[in-house]
Amino acid sequence: MNKQWVLATGNKGKVKEMSELLNSFSIEVLPQSHFEVSEVPETGTTFVENAIIKARHASKVTGLPAIADDSGLEVDFLNGQPGIYSARFASEQASDQDNIDLLLNKLEGVGEAQRSARFQCVLVYMRHELDPTPIICQGTWEGIITEQQNGENGFGYDPIFWVESEQCSSAQLSKQRKSELSHRGKALSLLVEQLKVQLG
Fold it and tell me: Hey, how many other C-beta atoms are within 10 angstroms of the C-beta on 162?
């Protein structure tokens, strides 16, 4: 079995997180930038499609098994927006703050009962670019969109994502607690369980 896998992201945090989880399988996880893999246009209409597009591209270029994730925020009042456009909600070059401002603007005057939302994360593992049965794992994290920003940790929409069980925003959680609760943490746990079955 191939002991090197490529992770279809340039995010160092994600690479570290994935490396720690796959350590027990003696697998080295390398970011796609290590192989000079270019970004691929995310032309899918769902998180699953986009994750598969990214994994297939990374696997095709490197010839290695690949893992990719696609994640975002769904707000019920906005019929699931920003969804797959979460990172580029305000514009293609939007900052986290631009996206937060636009979302809060769209929810202005909307009561708490209608501000329900969830983070979604879909993780895909492909053994090779033509893998007909990729492993697909999905994690969901329920919350409420606040009216004010709170907290300095995390990124993206974390400062306005209220976590009821913790009575604070996602951006006020410790890194460890966030990874225990989050959509990405849940999807990663499912992936590790599936890999145990597949890799023995």
Answer: 19
